[in-house]
Amino acid sequence: MQRIFQIVIFAAGLTATASAQDWQLGPFTRPLDVPVISPNKASIFLDPISQKPIHWEALHTFNPAATIAPDGSVAVVYRAEDDSGVMGIGGHTSRLGLATSSDGLHFKMRPAPVLYMDNDAEKSHEFPGGVEDPRIVQAPDGSYVVTYTQWARDRGTYTIGIATSKDLVHWTKHGPAFDAADGGHYKALMYKSAGILTELRGDRLIAAKLHGKFWMYWGEIQIRLATSDDLINWTPVVDPATHEPHVLLAARSGHFDSGFPETGPPPVLTSQGIVMLYNAKNSNPEDTIHSLQGDPAIAAGAYSVGEALFSADDPTKLLARTDQPVFKPERPYERTGQYAAGTTFAEGLVPLHGKWFLYYGTADSFVGVATAPMKK
């Protein structure tokens, strides 16, 4: 088991305190009042496991990652659900599709998925639920790293899978993120949602090293942290008192994240510290996770977006957190669909033309976009 490590003092210019106006990204607004990616019933893919043609994005296209492609276009890798299985959340098979855009608003979708369950070494982790909810970063060498949920639905297990690519089309799977950590200690752990720390270099967000390591915020219900030397094999940061993965962010009673927080897009290292956009579920009386009171101004069970600031000197240290959501379900396509309580579920963040482009899932059904000016 990894023990908590000494934090090396980082750049003196990073401050430990900042006002919300100073450190937050945003405010985010909708440049278009419609989804930017929607299901396509005409798309057909020959599934390598069943050897049958599948309408792989017929029902829902949502929960998108985003990055800048090698040609400079915006690339969105989104979760697509086919029309198999039972009608209900998590009842279909998911694959990851790729769409590109020169302006970040109007997309051309590839006819076939780019990452999917296959007769490969990861089949036991991904069949029959498939692959879900990606987040993408570009590595310092120019390649791409995606974290995604591997959903073995029949066994009821899920993990964070890691895959790499040079072109966003052809991917190499590396298996669950924590399998090699601490002698296999985490192989039975179920965990999902992971964003690798990035920094702005020119016009791209690139995976950033702090104190000689890469960092990854991960988890739903509670957000935790892990480190890596190679962006592929990750080791959770543990609490010295419990020797279990260190909890950094948890639910708050009476707030928009009273249900639980969940890791959003890859966090960004800024002059103020580490800024993390996170997804937040408002408490629902039917939840069995806990009994915290929700925010009455937001629908029970709805997902909105919050922001948190962590110290760059110590990435486990929470410095600030928004008391209100910075983006929430308001439009009809964000409040109707597969998830009727409403979602603005953010997973992709890219810089483009002096703005932040935030890509999010709407009601587990479509992909939406919001933008914000980048602060100078």
What Rg is obtained from the alpha carbons, in whole angstroms?
19 Å
Order of helices and strands: HEEEEEEHEEEEEEEEEEEEEEEEHEEE
Number of extended strands:
25
Oligomer: single chain
What would CATH call the homologous superfamily?
Answer: Glycosyl hydrolase domain, family 43
Q: What's the CATH architecture?
A: 5 Propeller
Structure description:
By secondary structure, this protein is mostly beta strands. It has a single domain (20-373), classed as Tachylectin-2, Chain A. Helix content is 3%, strand content 38%. It has three helices and 25 strands. It has helices at 20-23, 123-126, 332-335, and strands at 45-46, 53-54, 60-68, 74-81, 94-101, 108-109, 130-138, 144-152, 157-165, 171-176, 194-196, 198-201, 204-207, 209-210, 213-218, 224-228, 234-236, 260-263, 268-270, 273-281, 303-310, 318-321, 344-352, 355-362, 366-373. The strands form six sheets. Strands 12, 13, 18, 19, 20, 21 and 22 form a seven-stranded mixed β-sheet that branches. Strands 11, 14, 15, 16 and 17 form a five-stranded antiparallel β-sheet that branches. The chain is globular and about 50 Å long. It starts with 19 loop residues before the first helix and ends with a strand. Mean pLDDT is 92; it is low at 1-20.
